[in-house]
Structure formats: structure tokens, C-alpha cells
Give the backbone structure.
Amino acid sequence: MEILLISGLSGSGKRTAAAILEDIGFYIVENLPAKMMVAFAQFCVASQGKYDRVAFVYDVRSGESAEEYSEALHKLREMNALCRVLYLDTDTATIIHRYKETRRKHPLAKEGMTIESAVAQEEKLMRPVRESADMVINTSTYSTAKLRSELREMFAAGNNKEPLQVNVMSFGFKYGLPMEADLVLDVRFMPNPYYVDELKHHTGLEENVKRYVLSFAQTQEFLTKAKDLLAFLLPQYSQEGKSMVTVAFGCTGGRHRSVAIAHEMAAAISAGGYPTTESHRDISR
């Protein structure tokens, strides 16, 4: 079992880090007192693998003493589990900028106190936690993407690294763009089976329609270029830290051309080793 304590200064990105680690496979628990973290961890150890990766978001502003934290950490490290502490640090100027940008109040800032004074007070409170840390990341210059990449490198290596999930879908432009799409490719330039009487009332999943759509030179050239594009993009998305990508192919009504193309592309992406799902939003309209 793996136990991770996520801590750090306010504004350093603890909740963002927790969300990223949740995507990696950690069960996230926030704002438990130190003694309750120990009790919960004991429950997880006894669960026989049900909770094999647990991350606590911990903050000593709850009023606990450094001794209470140190005692709890000692007990966690004595368990039959890998226990580590991740501390997120940030320079004072960056924290001040982030709080001004969000217009939120620093949690330690009393009336009349500057953010700088609140940060100095928090640094003093958090010093025992920082000194106990196994890993320290200074997020002052980090974007969310950079933090995601760093955490995936640290905690999702080897067998724990989930492959990129690719969702391939078809849709009709006349019914609007799919909100969940990351990439949209328009196939309305292809000859339309709708205007062929014997194909009009069939769909792109049926052999006669697929054969018609795929019979044109421009369709084959498009498929070649689309496959090349995704062969380049998907590893980049995976490296950047994305866990899921939705690729949408659109035609006018979403019954013929986009369906046939999405079906072909889903098969090609799956053959490339990516877990792939296929859906056709407007095929029944």
C-alpha cells in the first residue's frame, strides 16, 4: 500500500495536485486531523488492497501542534506501507500575486494584516512539515500542465501509468458541435451518400454506405493524413499528462460520412495500442 501526505503553503497548488493524483489513481482525503489520518490509514491497510493508494491533503492550520503531526507521521511510517510526504513550496511574491489575481483572502490574514505577513506566519507553522518532506516541489513558475507532468513522472511511472484513453465520435454539424470534443475534423467535403437513393436511409456502419464513402481518392487521402496527425498528437497528449482525448468527426447530419470515417479511425487508433471507444451521437436522428 502507498500513503502520501500532500502539504504546503496556501496558494502553492495542493488541491490542484490532489486532483492530478486522483486521476493517477490515488484515493484523496482532505482536512483530516493527524490522529484521524492514522486511523483511516489503518483501515486502508486492513482493506486487503481496496484502498492501495491513499493521499491525505494535510494542513497544520487546523491548530494541531508540531508534536501531534510528528507522532502521526511516525505511526504512518511504521505501517506496512510506503509512506511519503510531498510538500509544495512557493515564493512569497508568487503567493501574493495569486491571491490578488483570485481576489481571495489568505486563510491566516486577519483584519489589517498584509498577505506577506500571513505568508510569513504560515511558513513558520509549516516548517515541521516541510522538514519532514521526502519530496519538495517549488511551484512558483509552474503551470498546471507542468505540475501534472511532474507528478505523473513521480507517481505514475511503470505499471501504474494509465494509457491515454481515446474516444472517437461522429456527429452532425446541423445539431451543433459536441462540447466534449478536444479535436473536431470536418468531413463534409466528401461525396454525400444522402443523395444516393439506395443509400439515403442507411448509416455509415452498414457495408454499402462504408464502401461508397471509402471509395473516393480524397477520402483515402484524408484518412492517411488524419492517421498521421493522430500518430503525432496522441503521444504528445499522453506526455503532457492528459488521461483522455475525444476526437470528433462531423458531417452534415451525422448518419453517413462521419459515421463511416469515425469507425475507420477508431479501428486504426485501437490498432495503435490506445484504449479506444466509439460512439455516434446523431446516427438515429
Remarks:
- The mean pLDDT is 89.
- Residues 165-280 form one domain.
- The longest strand covers residues 82-89.
- Residues 217-240 form the longest helix (24 residues).
